[in-house]
Amino acid sequence: MKKRRTRRKYVNWESEIAKGNTDKFYHSTDWDIVREKVLERDKNTCQFFLGKWDDGKHKPNKYKLVRATMVHHIISIKERPDLALDINNMISLSFEAHEIIEDRTRFYFIKKEKVLRKERW
Hints:
121 residues; two-stranded antiparallel ribbon; 2 strands; 7% strand; single chain; mainly alpha
């Protein structure tokens, strides 16, 4: 368990997220506590690559045991700010699985071609 700062004051996260302060939420102590509980509940394993969670659009190529480093909101906090700290609305994912689910794989997992240059002596 990581050493965290003490909780300073109560914040109404539902109204803060509705205002658009999601960065403030993701850097809060409340988020750290809930994130650790979700990772502990799922035993730090990626639920997507285990085949225990399916969003209906994406499926893993093969099932494997991968360490989870991220926590994903099943229903986005922008859609439902009241579920921002609900443990039942969260799932543990690896970085690769989170990028697949968020449809950002086209940016990360593309191999770039090396540029060959003319040798000059």
